[in-house]
UniProtKB/TrEMBL annotation:
It comes from Paenibacillus enshidis. GO terms for molecular function: ATP binding. Residues 317-337 are annotated as: Disordered. It holds the Pfam family ABC_tran. This is ABC transporter ATP-binding protein. Keywords: ATP-binding, Nucleotide-binding, Transport. Gene3D superfamilies: P-loop containing nucleotide triphosphate hydrolases.
Length: 337
């Protein structure tokens, strides 16, 4: 559905993004992560057509976002970190204004606005001025404006920023529901939010994409030792002797179960000599020794650990040179396009 090919944006001083390449399929909720200044917001503005790239292209169903802007942007919903609201409007007045800009048919506007008010929990606030809304309700209203035209692609920049815990849970549940009908690109600094909501993760650092994978798979990156926690039944001394010279992994006894001695069990952390999966030879090793396996669990790096490693590594390179004329400083994108 969405294709990002060699996308680059260069600003004075070397800021920007360089040669991003990724694609998204219909129905995906993709987490877009990176430290402050990594280029996330710039990337999202390029994807939604708010900024022109220095190089590369963004395609929505093979149609260029930048060459056929209005035609494509009508299929995109965008919620910036600070929702583009007009504080002197009422809630219903704002939604009516956005619906007209988004070419929602006049005959269906009242029904669509009513749906948005109900779905986003704005009931009873239709006549309230936007300036008097709380942060949470402003986020809801901004999200209503982003989806009122039923976009195929929804781009959300920190949608839960500044919300209280109850509001965060409500917005997360709403994003999960939206993912059933829309393709969602979600930028957030709350990493557990990504693990909860997203079926894929993109991590950007210094303007470059450094990781693309599912939350379940990226923990087992090949450059990390393969790790397994096992709970075995038997005497600790005998179990340790089985692994004392095992070629595939080293063994460390875990003392996190005070009842282990009573139960006659031992928990071990097995750390591989490489990133290779050693569970099959482990099975045969324990089978030959006659040691019952009560539990075996693969230990992955957490998303937080992976994020920290990829965004603080000294090996992370800066932006590669970008062909063409150097762009001017990032312009202030308009509220709505």
């Amino acid at each position: 559905m969405l294709e990002v090919n060699q996308l680059s944006k260069r600003f004075e001083g070397g800021r920007g993004v360089g040669e991003l390449n990724f694609s998204m399929q219909r129905g995906e909720i993709v987490g877009f992560l990176g430290p402050n200044g990594a280029g996330k917001t710039t990337s999202m503005r390029l994807i939604t057509g708010y900024l022109q790239p220095t190089k590369g292209q963004v395609l929505l169903d093979s149609i260029s976002v930048h060459d056929q802007g209005r035609r494509v942007r009508s299929r995109i919903g965008y919620l910036p970190e600070n929702p583009p609201l007009y504080h002197d409007m009422t809630v219903s007045g704002y939604l009516s204004f956005v619906a007209s800009l988004r070419d929602v048919p006049a005959r269906g506007q009242k029904v669509r606005i009513s749906e948005m008010i109900s779905r986003l929990g704005l009931n009873g606030r239709e006549r309230q001025l936007v300036r008097s809304l709380s942060k949470g309700y402003k986020q809801r209203l901004g999200l209503a404006g982003a989806i009122i035209h039923k976009p195929d692609l929804l781009v959300l920049d920190e949608p839960t920023s500044g919300l209280d815990p109850n509001q965060i849970l409500e917005i997360r549940e709403l994003i999960r529901e939206l993912g059933e009908q829309h393709t969602v690109l979600l930028s957030t600094h709350i990493l557990p939010e990504v693990s909860t909501l997203c079926n894929r993760v993109l991590i950007i650092n210094q303007g470059k994409l450094v990781l693309d994978g599912s939350p379940d798979s990226i923990g087992g990156r090949g450059d990390e030792p393969f790790k397994v926690v096992v709970e075995l039944k038997g005497e600790e001394s005998r179990i340790q002797s089985v692994f004392s010279a095992w070629e595939h992994a080293s063994a460390e006894v875990l003392k996190d179960n005070p009842e282990a001695e009573v139960q006659g069990t031992v928990r071990l952390l097995l750390t591989g000599r490489s990133g290779e999966d050693f569970r099959e030879p482990l099975f045969y090793q324990l089978s030959e020794a006659g040691i019952p396996v009560l539990e075996m669990k693969k230990e992955n790096m957490s998303l937080e650990q992976i994020f920290q490693k990829l965004t603080t590594s000294e090996a992370s390179a800066g932006l590669a040179p970008v062909d063409g004329k150097e762009a001017q400083d990032e312009e202030n994108a308009g509220h709505l396009s």
